[in-house]
Design a protein that fits this description.
Length: 141
């Protein structure tokens, strides 16, 4: 009996959550999201990476709620030729690996009414949630 207790007490748990692994998953989700925006368009990327109940805050503190409304918002013809790129400067993840947040710099390039490219830079902040399939989807942007 003492032998069994000694063996069990010396056993280290190897399946404990690994925050670095979770951060790598979120970093990959951010990169895949950015790459999809560049390759398939902003509307498709936001649709693909949004949680069904996602919210985005845009001009004049307008809240666009749910995945379908976000897709509709970015399907506006004015966004068709826009380009968006970003990369997180910081990622943090909850200890259980179900929630995360990121922030960093973005670059938005579009054309004005004369066809001249106009760029804008800023800071983004995204909140991510891991769904039941193990996929990271944004819930706030």
């Amino acid at each position: 009996m003492f032998f069994v207790i000694a063996i069990v007490s010396c056993h280290t748990k190897t399946d404990a959550p690994n925050i670095d692994t979770f951060k790598e998953e979120v970093s990959k989700a951010e990169k895949d999201f950015n790459d999809m925006a560049a390759n398939k368009g902003i509307a498709e990327a936001f649709y693909a990476f949004a949680d069904s109940n996602a919210i985005i805050k845009r001009e004049n503190d307008t809240l666009i709620k749910n995945r379908e409304s976000i897709h509709h918002y970015y399907s506006n013809p004015g966004y068709k030729n826009a380009q968006l790129s970003w990369k997180p400067d910081f990622i943090d993840v909850s200890n259980d690996g179900t929630l995360a947040y990121t922030y960093g710099k973005y670059l938005w390039v579009s054309k004005d009414t004369t066809g001249k490219a106009v760029s804008a830079t800023g800071i983004f902040h995204t909140v991510w949630k891991k769904n039941s399939k193990g996929e990271w989807k944004f819930v706030w942007d």
